[in-house]
Amino acid sequence: MADTTNDKDRLLEHQYDGIQEYDNPLPRWWVWTFWGTIVFSIAYWLNVGGIGTGQGRIADYEQDMAAFRAAHPLPTGPADPAKLLALVSDKHEVEEGQKVFAKNCVACHAADGGGLIGPNLTDAYWLHGGKIEDIHATVTNGVLAKGMPAWGKLLQAKEVDEVVAYVWTLQGTTPAKPKAAEGELVQK
Ligand code: HEC
To answer: From the CB of 147, is ligand 1 less than 6 Å away?
Structure first.
């Protein structure tokens, strides 16, 4: 039961058809929350595209995506072989490529590139071309029918370039368990 000691004071003066009104205000916190929602709704509507000054959620989303794409470009078009070969002679870039390889490629090509499900990457035989720009194209587009993923959709352009530079350095190395050569001999 509520405290009724002050009931007399809180009965309002007026009477209508014998009915008296009892002053029973809502709790303060409730009232402030109520006003707060009104203030919030005004600010909120002002920011909705098409109604207020805001550009809207779709435009916000597209802007965020465009900013992300600008910062993380996907590989586009054929690679420039001179640029890739320049990476090969940069120790830091090759190390970065090795990290990408360790994370994404070893499951199918083995840690030393000797080949498992995927072909041996250390020999001079290539299924899809042995020039550095061919390797870049294979890595970017994958060979989906044979289980080689299209890394151009999964890695950033820079990572693809680096891993290709690293693969290039595997040429002529001696893996522990080399897979038999596949494809055509490519003379360098
Ligand atoms: C899920 C297994 C798998 C993964 C992971 C994988 N590959 Fe492959 N890769 C293959 C297969 C299978 C082939 C052979 C395709 C064919 O037979 O045409 C291949 C082919 C290649 C070739 C062409 C070889 C040639 O002889 O022309 C290159 C280069 C290559 N992979 C690089 C990479 C790199 C770099 C990565 C990591 C970023 C990677 N692969 C990750 C399965 C894989």
So the answer is: yes
